[in-house]
Amino acid sequence: MKATLQRQGHQVSLKRMSRLMSSAGLSAGTRRGRINTTRAEGSTVATDLVKREFRADRPNQIWVADATYVPTQEGTLYLAVIKDVFSRRIVGGSTRARQGSELMVRALQKAVSERSPQGGVMHHSDHGSQYTSTAFQAACQAANITPSMGTVGNCYDNAMVESFFASLEKELIHQQQRRRFATRSEAALKIFEYIEGFYNRTRLHSALDFRSPVEFEQAHTQRKAA
Fold it and tell me: Where are the alpha helices (DSSP H) in 84-133?
């Protein structure tokens, strides 16, 4: 928040910002835990190629994926996303009324369609049955994407996507606590607007030297062209 205010021409200290937020009754939100994904018995698990080294030198080198849920008055909406490790950009997403492999397949297909990776992409996820399913493995193979899966029960394997879910919860869903989304369609639209209109293009990330993911990728492209 301090970085955002500074970019808008406001000079404010952390203490003053904290005091103003407190006087206005504002505080940081908290989020629910994500959905639990379990491995289907007899399923094929990919090798852990990332080994918690979540660093990339270029876009479309490592993608990390996970899923969560959003409550609505109509029922639960499931959300799967794919995040580019290099720029922290959400490159693929999918929403459905049911949690299943199609949710993850559609998120992957969206990422491939949007990014057109030229091979060499690693897709890192947990051992959930949706990711170990035949349908998802076939989608990876068709797109020439190499699956990678972390160790069981290690919170650090999903930390990068968890950080996005925490931001989504605090900055969008938390604001709806007094009035839950009326329908799944409304929630899906608001999530899309949050990702494409704010998170990827406007929201500043400390890990990117307080730039947005789109800004960070644009700077990378300019350096390569120079």
Answer: 101-115, 129-132
